[in-house]
Write a structure and sequence with these properties.
2 strands; single chain; mainly alpha
């Protein structure tokens, strides 16, 4: 497990614990605390969903591109068949 995956797991666990704290009546929270925890939960959820994503490399038409096997392939424009 790399560092990015570990951070994502911790964030997912935290985003599961925060709603529990918000609905638990034995944990008295001031209204501002509820707002802060709710905002933190939304932020953590968004970060967990977006973390680990990488941009897909885009090659210009007619430029060489590398295949998964490491070979070089040429990207050319084609027209779709009707």
């Amino acid at each position: 497990m790399n560092k990015s995956n570990l951070v994502t797991v911790i964030i997912v666990i935290a985003s599961a614990i925060i709603p529990y704290l918000l609905i638990e009546k034995d944990v008295p929270l001031p209204p501002i605390g509820i707002v802060i925890l709710t905002a933190a939960n939304i932020g953590l959820t968004a970060y967990a969903r977006l973390s680990g994503t990488t941009a897909v490399p885009v090659a210009e038409v007619g430029t060489p591109a590398q295949t998964p096997a490491g070979d070089t392939a040429t990207v050319t424009a084609t027209t779709p068949k009707p």
